[in-house]
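Subject: complex prediction, re-run

Hi both,

The earlier run crashed halfway through, so I resubmitted it with identical inputs.
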Amino acid sequence: MILDAKTAENAPVRRGAAARLRLEKAALRCFVRRGIDAATTKEIAKAARMAEGNLYRHFSSKEDLAWALYKDRLASFVALLEEDARCDGGARARLEALLGRFRRLLEEDPDTYAYIVLAQHSLLNRTPKGMHTPTDVVAGILAEGQKKGEVRAGSADLLATLLVGMVIRVTLLKMSGHLEGGAAALERELAGACWRVVAG
Amino acid sequence: MILDAKTAENAPVRRGAAARLRLEKAALRCFVRRGIDAATTKEIAKAARMAEGNLYRHFSSKEDLAWALYKDRLASFVALLEEDARCDGGARARLEALLGRFRRLLEEDPDTYAYIVLAQHSLLNRTPKGMHTPTDVVAGILAEGQKKGEVRAGSADLLATLLVGMVIRVTLLKMSGHLEGGAAALERELAGACWRVVAG
Amino acid sequence: MILDAKTAENAPVRRGAAARLRLEKAALRCFVRRGIDAATTKEIAKAARMAEGNLYRHFSSKEDLAWALYKDRLASFVALLEEDARCDGGARARLEALLGRFRRLLEEDPDTYAYIVLAQHSLLNRTPKGMHTPTDVVAGILAEGQKKGEVRAGSADLLATLLVGMVIRVTLLKMSGHLEGGAAALERELAGACWRVVAG
Amino acid sequence: MILDAKTAENAPVRRGAAARLRLEKAALRCFVRRGIDAATTKEIAKAARMAEGNLYRHFSSKEDLAWALYKDRLASFVALLEEDARCDGGARARLEALLGRFRRLLEEDPDTYAYIVLAQHSLLNRTPKGMHTPTDVVAGILAEGQKKGEVRAGSADLLATLLVGMVIRVTLLKMSGHLEGGAAALERELAGACWRVVAG
DNA sequence: TATGAATGAGTGTTCATTCAT
DNA sequence: TATGAATGAACACTCATTCAT
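This time it finished cleanly. Structure:
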């Protein structure tokens, strides 16, 4: 599991930590499958094999749980993207590295992927400011590419938004079965399209 | 109001139709501002200046209301897009006509625009099949363009998805204030990017 | 029922008003018998023969219900006391009129009596300020009596507190069965004791 | 601390006894400040600097804790009152000694004072029988005074109730800040009023 | 002995829906 | 047709109590 940052640390915390991990995975799953509002604490607790009340030992409210899940997983993912963004090669290679990271998350932890993308509509709109997003990482790569003349001029933020829009839309439809084609083929197509949009 | 398809037809229905119109607008507004789940029938009825129970004379349930709103407005919008898609000129001109239509809806009826886009996450995933979507219209234009050699080869559905992804993402962030730039400038940028992605 | 001020006014309000009256009586009964905290909304609703949710059509919360009950009933009782306090005769006669009013409430509406007295410990301590209390009425009589030389000098508030303390304690123990003696005899003893405390 | 009767007796019990003492003081404080029902075992345990579960090594339930606190502290206080009641002098002197004891408890251990008085409404009504109360001590003094002709005839229980009613009411309002005047002045007034009520 | 994670019944409250008027 | 009082199942959350460590 890529984004389960908190590994067990020491014995006395162990029991609680394991329960928290179960809880986070169960909540993530419920939120993605039923929507944050529609998922009930009862369902989540049952899926995590714990009593309902115990949920509140780990998170102060359902909203807190939903937000913490979003914030932590997004931050972990963005951290990975930033690492990728520092790879050798030009802007094109870096963008492709990012795309690879998106695909890997989608394959290895689809719940986290879907949650990060979907939660934006109910959470991001109400609470962000100053949080690092995947779009920021893309924009950073593009801005650097513009200096070297690899990337066409224009607002790096807007270009990044265009790329992220394509990526999100394609992966979302892929997940819901509305789009045919293998993951590798889609990734190749996405890479090509992204470069067409931003090539200098 | 562009997408209020059902105008009053004859006298005896008139009053009920007016009430239904008020109800639809109020519900749309509430759903967009608060989310479908969070919006209550009480709020909606109050905004529509009618008693709560009266809502059920027009729709059999809140879910039915949400779905009918989505289906009708999406169908009306798609009908307009299809009209635009039959305009003279090549694929590029047609795509730009579609983009203009998107922008016009966004400006003239932002609630409807937002609802169509946002409702997908809670409604489309659970209920589509055989409905005509904006992506279908775009794909149609692209397929025809491919025949004429204006548009590059590849899955027209995938290409259309890429374009729609860019449009939705940009307009969504524009609506929530996360993206700077005037509407006209954004439309120009979008048009350029779209064409770069699909140009033959 | 002495303190049910709100009588039915007009037809359209009738149904709701009757339900509200049932609710108030049931809540009063539950609060007195079980204590405000221990009484559950479920119990109250059942005793009022209505669904639990309907309670919130009349009061915004259980706390609001408890407070409204206290405030309204206390105000109604104080209004009666103030009327009594304007009777002819000297301070002694007026104090005896008040005592009679206490006894009448205790006999005719013991729930209201007990609630007014008991709620002070959980409600009065947290919310009063500027509310008229029985003690104020007594103090008013004493202050006037002091001007005429019927009542001994000293803080009228303190003297009133002493009298009210005796009355409350005696009636409380009487209600719980810890004190023997008929109501009439107790009233006579109380009247005598009160006068001895304040006589000039 | 006047009423902490149980001092540590021997070494092996010592540590547990200290914890129990902390627990009792913390519980008393919480019960008085928040009310018995509203105070949570979590709060109490935290205030006593012990784990929540450990509370159950000392008391079998929260109710048991509340009751034990009431019973023990009341008994200790009554024992002191009985000692005072055996002092030399007539009924008046003895009553004044009792009043002094009330005042001393109020000043030196206001939590205990408030708890004894307040707990009656939630505990005494449900559980007394055969417990010695302050009223009993007062009644004893009055009965003896009646034999000597110092105290007027009548039910000693009723007279004692009247006195206790005055004392409780005055001190309660004093504690909640609803009554002005210094403690010494109030005690003098109380003493005067008590004697007026019972003087032969 | 002491801890605090875990439990689960129960709380006050909400809300989509029904129905008498 | 329209109203809004009434319903009751469900909800998020609390908390006294238990128990493995």
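Residues 15-16, 19, 50-54, 57 of chain B lie near DNA strand F (CB under 10 Å from a C1').

- K.
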